[in-house]
Amino acid sequence: MREGSYGTVGQAVLGREVAGTVTAVGEGVTGFAVGDEVFGGCPGMVGGWAPEAIVTASFSAHRPGEVRPRDAAVLPVAAGTAWDALNELDLPEGATLLVNGAGGGVGIPTVQLARARGLRVVGTASPAKHAVLARFGAIPVAYGDGVLDRVRAAAPDGVDAVFDMAGGEALRTVAPLVADPARHLRSVSDKDLVAQLGGSNVARDRSTAVLEQLARLVAAGALDPLVTDVRPFDDAPAALRLVEEGHSLGKVVIVVG
């Protein structure tokens, strides 16, 4: 949003996803009550960095006691996107998925969720992210010149689908690896180019059911939200710089209040 990816929004309170305690319930909302511990997404992708935030009831869920608030807070956007993409690709167990940009906020949960579904995962990423990708079960390969050769060496039987978080030339380079882009090429970084290449953007579900599934996986130890930095609200500018400059290995959480 700060880079203008969502158009001109004027002044806004940042914060797309939150976890906390319900202090009020809107008219007609069922399933939630004051005092419930919940997590979810904010309407309009804004408003989370505040003592109180509005959360969309249909994109909220109760937080299990086994899941820390900091871990629940980072699930709706990145892990939710990963879940939706894998549902769209609908690959059978044993298939090979290339995650293009696997070291980022969406890529890391994608690797974990794909491995949990029995998929073989190859992930392009900077060398600094290779160790964490390998820890989560992916075969990491470096970006840049020769990436197709490295992917083919890692997946000699071919790639069944590509999920892209890089866009641009990085997407254009790997797209020919899939035989049926309409079914098996998705991007969340470059919707215009992926359409030109025969694939599509990921249609988000943004539902309570998806959040409940993700929370269960975290509680069971099958999904690590990989929160690597927790900052007080006064450190928000430094936290933003850390993320925008690409220096964060995992998710950065801001605690308000």
From TrEMBL:
Alphabetical list of InterPro entries matching this protein: ADH-like_N, ER, GroES-like_sf, NAD(P)-bd_dom_sf, YIM1/Zinc_Alcohol_DH_Fams
Enoyl reductase (ER) domain sequence ranges: 4-254
Cross-referenced Pfam families: ADH_N, ADH_zinc_N_2
Protein's name according to its UniProt entry: NADP-dependent oxidoreductase
